[in-house]
Amino acid sequence: MTHIGQSSPGTRLPLPHSGGAITLAWGAATDVGHRRQVNEDSFVAEPPIFAVADGMGGHAAGDLASEAVVNRLGGVIADGFVTPAAIGLALAQASRDIAQLDGTALVGAGTTVTGMALTLSGDDPYFAVFNVGDSRVYRYLEGEFEQVTVDHSVVQELVDAGAITRRQAENHPDSNVITRAIGFNEPPMPDYWMLPVEPGLRLLACSDGLSKELDDERIESLLAAGAPAADTASALVQAALESGGRDNVTVVLVDVLAVETR
Amino acid sequence: MASAFYSPEPLPAGEEWRLLATDRFVAAFGPDTGMHTMATLWRIAAEPTLGLEALVGAVPTKGTEAVQSFAIAGIGRSTVFVVRGGGCADVSVAGRMRRVDARGAMPWYVAELNEVDRFALGPLERSPGDLRPAEADMPLDGGVVFGPWLGWARDVVAPPPPRPPAPPAPVEQSAYDTNVLGDLGRRAASLTRHRTEPPPTAPTPETATAFRVGDRAPERVDAPVYVGRQPRSPRVTGPMLPRLVRVDSPSREVSATHIELRPTPHGLVLTDLQSTNGTVVRQPGSGVRRLESGESLPVAPGTLIDIGDGNVIEILAYR
């Protein structure tokens, strides 16, 4: 478990060119859960990067893998807004770091990573949502709730192919098999989604320790309750623990409090 | 016309850098880089669906094939430089010179710069000069060559008209003339093919287009463009990241993500993204038509696209 950044009840971030600004609040929470010995999740919650990584591998290698990813993403923090290219390169660097970890050559080590990075399109502020693996980003705005990312998992591929239904997917025996990761000597292949920074927007990044314990309705209701970001993050983790807590559970939550244009 | 160039002056063996250029990447790898590694890197660089991350990620940084020094530039809306070890990039940014070097950062150092006019990639020991191509320098449209450094300029003067075909050159070739490595000859040919038959998302110079929203500055279309009141993009994998263009719509006639403009080898394709109020298109010579929700249409320069609330997008030829 490595974490970078502290929660904030409200931080104003000036936009580089247009003279406007955005105000964000964010919070993060994590727990080892009831069954695991080690928390192999890591997170970074500091503008411009908010991300969760869920490490995999024996002998604590997963912990080192998720640490490598958040450290490299943390290295991007200096510059106010980032480009998706910078994210991709940070992930490529992390992939290298993981390949060089001592003792992982035999067992293999890797990690998922998902999250959102503040970026610009023209002069407009955007979240570049990125994903590798089966951690997830959810979006909540004005009563609308949706899963933004698409899992890189065997089960998701079966759903996409029409072989099984979404309902069958929930209890599928291969639900823990992912098809993309950072590490395992694979080049990282992130997917991206560009979401406008809008007042009232809530984005939640979480490890599968949350999404496998809580169904969409439960996650939505906790986001809709409207508690501050840090409290909501704790409440989500608490709910996952009460519902079983079979895996490490980590959430990073970002609220857009205000958008000032020129 | 932007292009790469290098000095063909012979160097002692063991001091030659391996220089690689495509229309998206310009890169110089240190003299310790093996032929097998260069073949792999070329294959990745010439593959239009792979991005800078894939190219950088494929450079071995440990083991016997390790490449201790390199400088790679990804050419796009901005220019991203990735440097390692004794490799560096001398860059002219809006007329001012700066050097990007790794200073020990491992496994490499990244810098992203806007408004890059010219740059040169090569060893740290090189003195940058003024980064302009000299008389004796050779252009490099695409391929792998050996040389002391590799230059790039946004606006290289148009090449002279082709000379009459020279008599076949004598076969005598010095090692330094070998500018295509091993089986890369075939790959070079495939790059030429890429250039005449580009991937679906990369416009050729003939079909390259730009768009202008109202009285804003025109922008070239080099990736899918989404226009709307509060546009967002669908899932994207790979290097072509979309451009999101926001327009004002006080009466909310414009949908959040209203239209997509997608570059293809045959020109630009407009799609109404299931907008609430539809899209009105005025094409030169064929009058006005209304695009229904979800409908697509190829659009040529001169087309006007009305998405509501007085927001008109004009398609222009790019020059």
Please, could you describe this protein's structure?
The complex is a heterodimer of chains A (262) and B (319). Chain A is α+β, with helices and mostly antiparallel strands and 262 residues long. Chain A has one domain: PPM-type phosphatase domain (Phosphatase 2c, domain 1). Chain A has helices at residues 61-74, 84-99, 104-107, 154-160, 166-170, 208-211, 216-224, 229-242; strands at 3-4, 8-14, 21-31, 41-46, 49-56, 110-111, 113-121, 124-132, 136-141, 144-147, 182-183, 191-196, 202-206, 249-260. In chain A, the strands form two sheets. In chain A, strands 1, 4, 5, 6, 7, 8, 11 and 12 form an eight-stranded mixed sheet that branches. A six-stranded antiparallel sheet of chain A has the order 2-3-14-13-9-10. In chain A, a hairpin with a 2-residue loop joins β9 (136-141) and β10 (144-147). In chain A, α1 packs antiparallel against α2. Chain A is globular and about 50 Å long. Chain B is mostly beta strands and 319 residues long. Chain B folds into two domains: 3-166 and 177-196, Phosphatase 2c, domain 1, CATH 3.60.40; 209-317, Tumour Suppressor Smad4, CATH 2.60.200.20. Chain B is built from three helices and 24 strands. Chain B has helices spanning 35-45, 52-57, 184-196; strands at residues 3-6, 17-21, 25-29, 70-75, 79-84, 87-93, 96-101, 109-113, 116-123, 138-140, 143-147, 150-153, 209-213, 219-220, 225-228, 236-237, 243-246, 259-264, 267-272, 279-283, 287-291, 296-299, 304-308, 311-317. In chain B, a hairpin with a 3-residue loop joins β2 and β3. Chain B is elongated, with a radius of gyration of 23 Å. Chain B starts with a strand and ends with a strand. Chain A binds chain B through residues 83-86, 88-89, 91-93, 95-97, 99-100, 121-122, 124, 126, 150, 187-196, 198, and chain B through 51-54, 56-58, 61-62, 74, 76, 78, 80, 82, 107-108, 110, 112, 226, 230-237, 241-246.
